[in-house]
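Contributing new records

If you add data, match the layout below exactly. Sequence lines come first and carry their own label; structure lines follow with theirs. Keep one chain per record. Anything else will be rejected by the validation script.
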Amino acid sequence: MIGTDLYVEQIEKDAVRFTDESHLKPLIQTASSAKYVLLGEASHGTSEFYTVRSAITKQLIEKHGFSFIAVEGDWPSCYEVNRYVKGNAPEYKNAIEALQAFNRWPSWMWANEEIVGLIDWLYTYNQKQTTEHKKVGFYGMDVYSLWESMEAIIQYLAKIQSPDVEKAKQAFACFEPFHRKAEMYGVSAALYGENCMEEVVALLQTIQQNKHAYNSDSEASLNMQINALVTANAEAYYQAMVTHDDKSWNIRDRHMVEALDSIGHYYGAEAKGIVWEHNTHIGDARATDMARQGLENVGQLSREKYGQEHIYSIGFGTHHGTVIAARSWGDPLEKMIVPKAKRGSWEDTLHQAGAFNKYIMFTEENREVFQRTIGHRAIGVVYHPEMEHLGNYVPSRLSDRYNAFIHIEETNALSPLSMQELTVT
């Protein structure tokens, strides 16, 4: 346990204890010099991860001029929230109504009470801005919304009476026999060679050629561009998912960086953005055992694309608490116990250094100490607390994976907007 003892000693020396958001000011100040600040989470169902990220996000926007938030969510659903926070969606009376756009499992990731406060704040903040381009946006970076993105393309092209709508309908018709079941399409494409790639490529080319025509509102061109990007990459993702799961992971994270880049270009060369995703996406994959599996992620790809000095990645974790998750994909959500961290893990070591909330910034002075490999907990939307010691800890070199880390000693399950199916285990 020499390594762990050294970690404890260094954490006691370097960590900053915090009890409220004002104590995070030095961390926020340091992060604010980056072009993109990546805010992680150790699970998709923890209240404090959302509330602390919200506090950091508000300060980055209000005090340091950040332009947009991009999250691990579907573009079409997030775009409805974006319309609301920018005052362009009169059909939504409040943030809760706008968040009903997240109606596909796992909806609790964004349709939760914790995010409502941030969306309300963004709406109010944007009301004070003098031009549309100064308003802060809220966007989705994920790749899953193939059918929803196709529908959005068709609806928009029909609305502006574009002749391109026929090509979009042809592409969509190719996917219709699969009844919105991604696994059906994946099997057909990967195993039987019956895919829709030709139709998707043709649609992409048409949209790219005619993008100048999609300007009926301030973000129409961006909306079309990302929905087309989702359609193309989702087709490849679902096809790869059947036979090459590692390949599908890389398709997804490359897509998210491509989407982030498109959003950044929309806001201009000087724009700065905030990314909300799981630790497994924002922490550099090269500092984990993911690298041995040939996996890349947003943390790695963004550092490679923009330069390490332009990315500031903050991981999040907890020693114990409760979380919202499910037993299997698509199952009803549950409130589950997060057990005390595994002995010798990163979370356990932070606990040994003091059973309180703290953050640590990795610097030239301490980076070498924290380059030893240590297990770091990761909880997904599917979770089995009783078995987490078998597969929920990712071997990581923390100071290579993140620029900083926030430890919440005891966390609580977030509050989904829809609680009808909630059970407690």
